[in-house]
Design brief:
The chain is mainly alpha-helical. Helices cover about 45% and strands about 10% of the residues. Strands 1-3-2 form a 3-stranded parallel β-sheet, covered by helices on one side. The longest helix is centred in the first third of the chain and has 22 residues, at about 5-25.
Length: about 140
């Protein structure tokens, strides 16, 4: 049983949703986080649910767009810095769709939907064609 399931059993589905919104919507970011996003990234893939990258980029004035794997790859506008949230983005998730938008369970994590999707293909292509790749965290 996942930690999210245990929390939901005790606090209900809306309690879990509220907890995720509380913990994964950042109101402040650190200088170190701002420093990381200042590099001239082609795009950023993240497994985090939070809005830290988005907040940092907004603060420094970098135009960007947020994408999740529930959207179409063709929706990406490469004229602005795309931020791809592989496991979901809690800030854009509503109570009615957060279970589909955010990976919370082992079944979701191990389903391997990403690698078999158009997003996985794009990610592999980016890895092959990029002059360098940085993993943070």
């Amino acid at each position: 049983m996942s930690l999210s399931s245990l929390y939901e059993d005790k606090h209900g589905e809306y309690g879990l949703y509220s907890l995720l919104k509380t913990f994964f919507v950042a109101n402040e970011v650190t200088n170190a986080q701002r420093s990381v996003v200042r590099f001239p990234w082609k795009q950023i893939y993240t497994t985090n649910y939070d809005n830290v990258v988005d907040t940092c980029l907004s603060e420094i004035g970098t135009k960007h767009s947020i994408h999740t794997t529930s959207q179409k790859v063709s929706d990406v506008d490469s004229r602005v810095l795309p931020i791809i949230h592989i496991n979901g983005y809690i800030q854009s998730a509503s109570f009615s769709n957060y279970r589909k938008e955010v990976k919370l369970t082992e079944v979701q994590y191990f389903s391997d939907d990403f690698s078999r999707s158009a997003w996985g293909e794009r990610f592999r292509t980016d890895i092959i064609t990029s002059p360098f790749i940085v993993f943070v965290g």
